[in-house]
Specification:
7-stranded mixed sheet; two-stranded antiparallel sheet; 2 domains; alpha/beta; 12 helices; Rossmann fold
Length: about 300
């Protein structure tokens, strides 16, 4: 039964209305939420500026006419155009932080958020980390979150996409980290010269062509440059593995997210002891290797580039 809205409505009533609308729509939820209720709540609380939510009394708050109209417009566009909610709101949350997003960048949803909140323990010692590289940065969310959780580090955000770096620059300003975080336009490591880092993190394009062809409609509204990892999904990952050691300081470590191509990657290098991360709050496909390991197995990684 459709809920009829009144002239004045509470947050709870607008959420109930949105849930009713979304229940009858063929939508996919995978861009920060994984179900329709959470997405509706996310939309309503974002528009009413109630995130992060402090307590449940917020649901009884009355919504202004202007905010209610905006919420209803977003509901309709989400249903009719299949645009992910984060693009409609121009905001996504990652590691407890709000980031500006548009269709020039992927919507943040990486399990890296959990690693960052735990300071990559036990493999990274905060007091020994001075420089971090976020490779294929997109919106800058991973690198900027690192800068917020590691308050004295310097972070380089690297991407080949100029529009993506424009978004990352907005997020640098938004989070007040311009003195410690900068953007670099580069095809992976090419423009980094002699720079070296204590920690390299990367969420590169890793979706293979077979998986890419079967994704829900919402994913095709994201920049395909950020998703397409070549036929196997591992084109950029092979390059990162072959080159990363050069850009790591002694005792430095590399973390890379490869998502559903984790088994394919392990099969490519059965000898390599990838340390796959476990996540309490969901997610998979993130590995860690030390500089020492990257050097030890570099002949294998380099050989893969010539095949």
């Amino acid at each position: 039964m459709t809920i009829k809205l009144k002239k004045k409505n509470t947050i709870s009533e607008l959420i109930a209305h949105g849930v009713t609308l979304f229940e009858g729509a063929p939508l996919y939820f995978g861009h920060g939420t994984d179900n329709l209720v959470d997405e509706v709540v996310y939309i309503v609380l974002s528009v009413t500026k109630k995130l992060p939510m402090k307590d449940e009394t917020v649901f009884s708050h009355e919504v202004s006419t202007v905010e209610a109209k905006k919420i209803l417009d977003i509901f309709q566009r989400r249903i009719k155009e299949k645009i992910p909610a984060a693009y409609l709101l121009e905001e996504a949350w990652f590691a407890g932080l709000a980031f500006f997003v548009n269709r020039d960048v992927l919507i943040p949803r990486s399990p890296f958020a959990e690693l960052i909140s735990e300071s990559f323990s036990p493999w990274v010692h905060v007091d020994k980390v001075h420089n971090i590289l976020d490779l294929c940065t997109g919106s800058g969310c991973i690198g900027i979150a690192c800068a917020k959780y590691f308050p004295s580090v310097h972070v380089d955000l690297v991407d080949i996409s100029t529009p993506a770096l424009a978004v990352a620059k907005k997020n640098i300003q938004r989070h007040g980290v311009a003195q410690r975080v900068k953007t670099i336009a580069s095809d992976l490591f090419q423009a980094l010269a002699d720079e070296t880092y204590d920690l390299i993190v990367s969420n590169p394009p890793y979706v293979g062509h077979e998986e890419l062809s079967g994704l829900p409609e919402e994913y095709y509204l994201e920049p395909q440059l950020g998703l397409d990892g070549g036929v196997s999904g591992l084109d950029l990952v092979h390059k990162i593995l072959a080159e990363a050691a050069t850009y790591l300081n002694d005792e430095g470590v590399l973390y890379v997210e490869v998502g559903n191509t984790d088994e394919v990657l392990q099969a490519c290098y059965p000898e390599v002891p990838f340390l796959w991360q476990d996540f309490e709050y969901g997610g998979h496909g993130v590995f860690m290797l030390t500089k020492e390991q990257l050097l030890e197995y570099r002949p294998l990684f380099q050989a893969k580039l010539t095949q």
